[in-house]
Amino acid sequence: MCGRFASALIAGDADTADWLRIERDAAAPDWVEQGPAPDHIDRAGGGASAEAAPLRVAGEHSGAGQVLAAMPAGAWPAPSWNIAPTQSIAIILPQGRAEGEAGAGPRRVARARWGLVPTWWRKPMALFKATTFNARSEEAAGKPMFRDAWRGSARAVTGASGRCLIPAAGYFEWTGKAGAKTPWFITRRTNRPGLCFAGVWSRAVLDETEMLTATILTTAAGPSTRHLHPRSPVVLDEADFDGWLAGPSPEDQRMMAPIPDVLTQLYEVDTAVGQVRNDTPDLVEPVGLGL
């Protein structure tokens, strides 16, 4: 499961752009929603109550903010260390290639609501009761909620749904009894700015506002984290980024894996992460004796 995570777009310009192969010099496709975050998006997520807030624009305090600001597409999600369902997140999309053109193209940063709403949904969002911030990778290909996005490919990137990368520094899990839970941060040992979850996206109309929505795929947790939760987000190996974005293939299920045990790093973090309004870099710093 992945119910909270920290953005990975907090590294320097060159590292982030190189790692994610983001193209910075051309305008984003006209179908990428770029306006301010809708007021009805609950930044608290997860059933918590908090005032809705407009999307923040990445600022100079972050190298990644400079990367995103350099793109003429407009306001992208600011770096965040405590992202909850229904908030705006950054997703990475393939640019797509012309018919017959070989190779993988540059990638784009887009903004999406965390919690996929399928393109066929036409009722008020107040009636949408499905929990879709995660999708089980074993079932997504066949479930009506996710199957169209699962089948998407780079050649259909201008369509209504498809596959994406969701960059993250890591994710949070909790253990213990209600009222006294211990938060943990799980990440991958890497020299890169972060990791990428496997995700799928859908372009949907939410209460007369068109926007992108997305979900994080999950799989069975590995031995190093299953004591925290039986599920884990799918963390793609960097060599599989293009393969995942390209569309369905016989390799799909092989790619649906957690962080390899030998590369997993986890440690206790401050209980302040339990409040979504808290969003500072120290939330992902180790505390306690589990260093």
Please give a structural write-up.
With 291 residues, the chain is an alpha+beta fold. It contains five helices and ten strands. Strands 1, 2, 3, 4, 5, 6, 7, 8, 9 and 10 form a ten-stranded mixed β-sheet that branches. α1 crosses α2. It is globular, with a radius of gyration of 18 Å.
List the helices and strands and how they pair.
Blueprint: E1 5-7, H1 13-20, H2 63-70, E2 88-94, E3 107-114, E4 134-136, H3 147-150, E5 161-175, E6 182-188, E7 195-206, E8 209-220, E9 231-233, H4 241-246, H5 252-255, E10 264-268
Parallel strand pairs: 3-8, 4-8
Antiparallel strand pairs: 1-5, 2-3, 5-6, 5-7, 6-10, 7-8, 8-9
**Count of helical segments?**
5
- Largest sheet descriptor: 10 strands, mixed
Can you write the helix and strand succession as a string? EHHEEEHEEEEEHHE
Residue fraction in strands: 25-35%
Question: What gross morphology would you assign?
Answer: globular
In helices, the fraction of residues equals: 10-25%
Are there runs of 5+ residues with pLDDT below 50, and where? 25-75, 98-102
How far do the termini sit from each other?
23 Å
Find the structural class using helix and strand composition: alpha+beta
Average predicted local confidence, pLDDT? 78
Q: If you compute it from the alpha carbons, what radius of gyration comes out, rounded to the nearest whole angstrom?
A: 18 Å
Q: Work out the number of β strands.
A: 10
